Structure formats: C-alpha cells, structure tokens
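Format notes (please read before filing issues)

Several people have asked whether sequences and structure tokens are stored in separate files. They are not. Every record keeps both together, in the order shown below: the sequence lines, then the token lines. Line labels are part of the format and must not be stripped during preprocessing.
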Amino acid sequence: MKKIVLFISMILGSYFASSQIIGSGLRCFMTNLNSPKSIQEKFPQRFSLQTIDGKQYISLVAKLKQDVTNEDIEKLGCKVRSRSGNIVSLRAEVESLEKIVKSEKIIDVDVARKVGVPQLKDAIKDVNADYVHQGLDMPFGINGEGVIIGIADWGFDYTHPVFYDTLMENYRIIGAWDQFRTAGNPPEGFDYGVELSTMEELLAAECDTNNIYDKGYHGTHVASIASGAGAGTDYRGVAFGSELLFGTWLVDEANVMDTYVWMKNVAKSKNKRLVINNSWGVYSFGYMDGTSMLDEFIENMSEEDSVVFVSSAGNNGGTQFHIKAEFEERDTIRSEFKFDLPTSSSRHYWGQTVSLAGDSLNTFSAKIEIYSRNWELLYESELLTADGSVIPETAVVLSDTDSLIYRASSRLGTNSRPLMDWEVGFTNHNTTCHAVLVITAENGNVHAWNVACLTTGVGNWGLPFAWHANGYISGDSEYSISEPGLGQGVITVAAHKAGRRNSSSSVSNIAGFSSHGPNLFQWLKPDISAPGQLVVSAISSFATEPPTAKTTVEFNGKEYPFATLSGTSMSSPMITGIVALILQANPNLTPSQVKEILITTARQDNYTEEVPNYIWGYGKADAHQAVKKAIQLVSLDDVQIENNITLFPNPVNNTLFIDAANQEYELQCLTDLSGRRIMDLQGKKDKINISNLKSGVYFLQMKVNSKILNLRVIKQ
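Then the structure lines:
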C-alpha cells in the first residue's frame, strides 16, 4: 500500500505544476475528488461546498495579478463575492477548478479555511472606561455614540434588552446578515443568506439560525461586552451608546470577508465609523506569519476603507501544542501528538490537524508513525516533502476495533515558506495507539501546531506534543496566536483577570489561557491586554446549552440571562468598545492612529513586567487615557462645535441652568451613572430643579441639532 500511495503523491506534485501558488487545502480537495465514497465519508467536512442549480460550488480565496478585473475571473467559472485590493473571495464551480489553477491571472489560490471559535462590572473599571462614561477631564461623557460596532460571530439574540439604550427604549441593532437563513433577501451585491435591516424584521426573527455552533450564545455575550447597555443591571458594556451590526457567517474565511464588506457598506451608507470584532481564530491552512490572504484582505480594508479590526489572541497560552524543531547537527526529530480532547468539547471530535511551517526558505519532510500501547511500531506513512506534494485519503486497518485515517498536503507560500498540513484520526476515539510526528530537514527551523479537528471541519483547541525518548522533543505554548490575530492590520488582544482599581492586593495577572506571540516573522503580538477572565455579560435567551445564569432581567414578559465566560473572546470586545469610544471622541483618526493611541496609553503594573513583550503586548488597556489622547488630537474648535452647551453652576446644589448659545435643543431626561432614568424632562427649559436628588454624578440627556448629547452634572 505504501508504494502505491507514494507513487500517487509524486504524480500529483507534477499535476499542479503552474506559475501560480496552489494552496495545500485546494491541493487536498482536488486530489481526493475521486476517492471512494466510503473513504471520503470518514473525513471531516473540511471544505465549504454548496449545490446551486444542480452544480457543486466551493469557497475559495485568491490573490489576483494587478489589473485583473472581476469579469476576468468570472470567465473561469467563478463568482467574485468580495474584494479588497487584489484579494478576492470566490464561489467556484468544482468542475472548473482545473482551469482556475492553471490561470495566469491568479497569483495564489486556496480553499477558504473553516474557522473555529476560541473558547463587567469590574472589567469596565479595570480599563477605566467608567471615567470615560462620566466625562472625567473631558468636555462631555462619551459612550460610543455615532460609531458602529460590527460583530462577526454566531449566537445572537436580537431581542435581548441589552441591545436597547440604557433607558430600554431605543433599539440599537441596525442590521444583521444571517448567512445560514434562507427565507428572505440577501444583502445587495450578494446572493446568499438573509439581511435583516429593520427593528421589525430583527425582532420577528428573534435570533440567528442555529448552526454547527449549536450552543448559540457566544455572539450575544461578545456583543454585550462591547456595547451592551446593561438592561438595568451593573453589567453594562464599554460603548453602550454605539450601534450594532451582527454577521452570522458560514464558517469559512471567504464568508467572513463577505461579512466585512457588508458591514463596511452599511457603515458608509450611514457615514459612520466602523470597528469590527473577531472573537475567533484558526491555525490550519495558513502561513502563521501574518501574511495570508485573509491578513492582506484585512490590511487593505483598514488602509483603504478606514475600518478598525480587533481580534482575540487565542486561548492556547497554557497548552503545549507547538513545537520548534531546530536542525543544525541532527537531521530528524520526533514528537508524540496527543488525541485526548476534553470530553466537554468532544461531541464533534474527529481527530487532529497537524500544521507545519518552515521559518526559512529551506524545505523539510514529514511523516507519521503509529505505535501500539507498548510502543511497538504498527505503521508508518510515506515521507511527504513540503514542495507541493499530496498524500491522498488513506485508511489503514490496525486491529479489529481500530483503523487509522489520514491525508496530507503541502505548498510553498507566496514568500516561498514551505507549509504542510496533516489530518489524522482513529476510528476508535478510545484508541491506545501512540501517534508520532517525524520531521526531517538538513538545516533551519520547522514549527508545528497540534489542533483538534471536528467532524464539522473546524476546531482550534490545541493538544499537546509530548516527549517519549531520546530524539523526541516536547511541546510549548509559544507562537500560539491564531489567525487573523497574527496580522498587522488588526489590534490583537490578550486576556487578564480584572483587578480592583488602585488596589495593592489585586490579582490582575495574565490569564493562563491567553495565547502568546510572536508570529513566524517575530512581529510583536499581541498588541495589548484587556479583562477576559470571568467576565459577566448577556447570554442569548435562545441558547440550546447556556451556561449557568448569574442573574436575569425581565423584559416584555420574558426572562433574559447574564452569565460568566472566560477567554480572549471576552477581552477582544473590551478593546473593540474602547476603539468605539476613541472614534466618537475623534472620528478622523486612521486605524493605525487608533492602534498607536491604545498602545502608547497602555498602563503597566507589577504583573506586566517589561513591556512590550509576547505575553502582554504593550500592557493593559486604559480607556480613559486613550480617549483623552484622542481628544487632544482634535482641534479645540472642533471640540467646541461638538458641545457648545454650558451647564452652570456645575457642581450644583439646587437649580441647574442651561445655556445653549441660541442653539435649538430639547431636553430628554436625567440619568444616573448606570443609565437609569432619574427624572423625565420634556421640551426646551433653561433651568432644572434638582434639589431632591442625592449627591453624586448624573447625566443630562438632550437633543441638539438632531444629535443626542450626554452632559455630566455633579450634584453637591
């Protein structure tokens, strides 16, 4: 069997000979098109396929040569869905793939990688966002108003009261694109999914479509951290005055590119700034150096469309799932890769994806060896060289109760980096066999990552590499940041435990799960840290397996839950909310300026040690200092135009007077620091009696020239 498989892989290496770069995922797909159905069905659903009008289509991403138009590519049997610079997401006819891979118009093409999800009150104070809400040392309180936050995720509850304003009156979700939904119209320019663009449509739909992430609560929790208004609880998000766009996407990078473009189009139509949150990540089928086509797409949108991107670093900081094999004097190393996924995550567990990348131009080869419980060699695969060769889908009977299943593919990236991916599984999930990765090279370094693969084709839980004997190496948790957090076009966020402000007894250290940098180019990642451990936020009321509720609120006759979750999925939206505060304070900032403000105002303490580093980035986010710096970059005249309203005396004992400099205005209400309505105010009044209020800080909400302002009032 081994000789036959080796012969096939050599033929396939020459079959793909072309001037363009063909991704390992596309090589794998095309290689196995004619595999027996009995073998195909044993592998995870790695590829995103759709049948339309009787034809089978696959999602691709590609990099085009300069001056190549969308029409040029569509002549190859593709449909261009989204484009940023010369990076495109495509839907391609499977029968046209041979023509596509031979086209001189394409520089690089690969299947769209499937994507997995990484697994407030104190948190708000940890980043000093409450000072920003109060308007401390600022002309007015800032809450993200006028900025749109886009959440690319799953598990949205459109009816949750946290997505109204603090008074629970004005609805702040301005649109959702559910790419799984079929009953309705897609967004303009797209031909799949359903766009919900009115409050009536969103509330009637209630929630997004249950999909492969069927617990269905992640997106609501993330969005509530970034922008939830609290619904009368203390668990109010960072930018609770912002508007929201929700994108429930079809689990691959081409679809998330489409989501980005849709969000950008909506924001531009409303002439508002946009910040997009990505609380997810992927390790397989990428470069792991921040130069993938997804990275380039994001960087193009950041530079050309002024969209700010924020991404979680990943949750593999405490997992020994990475190895760095150094080849100087020896030519072969081994490491056992484990299959013991925690049972809580194992419902769709299939096996492992082992991805390899060289950090130089020197190629390498790899194979797998299977040993019995007592370390007797049972099977070894052929040696695959990272030169574009492919090993097709293979099944090997090991015993009456267990078989080995594997396939592998390789490529040379646009930067000539040698890359390789193995998918390895056992039919018996309780196997006692040992799986060993063997790497051979003359010199240079080779990195590998061991990540769980699910039957759905996703998964990003790292599992260990382990030492066994001489010639073996063990794993570490370095280089553990996932895509798209590796790219330069995003603000990448680590997670720490929220601490009490100005407390010497704080335990606000980095979270054990928070992924570490750098990437393969040694770029500094992550960029910054925010609270992500034990964060309380809203949970979808439609979740099929919700976590235990910490509290609930009643709204429109229904109970809505809040619960505690941990992960860089939670720290990322903290930064997304801070970015919205910055953009409200100064909407003319570029994404690179926003990032510069965040990292130069980051705070350090006894835990951050010497920064910048590959664990903390530049330190802990400080929303108060960041927003103050953003305001400093606006001319004083601009600030005056924004808020040419005077309240006096302030602080005040009994009567507050209002001078609007002859502007038209309408009073709305007076609220406390939590946004609760304390006093209803209607119409145009030039004074308010507040003698009955307790001492403290309040906000006067008023409408000036069709814009809502929240002005700070201090009652003595």
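For reference, the curators noted about this record: The first strand starts at residue 21 and ends at 22. The radius of gyration is 27 Å.
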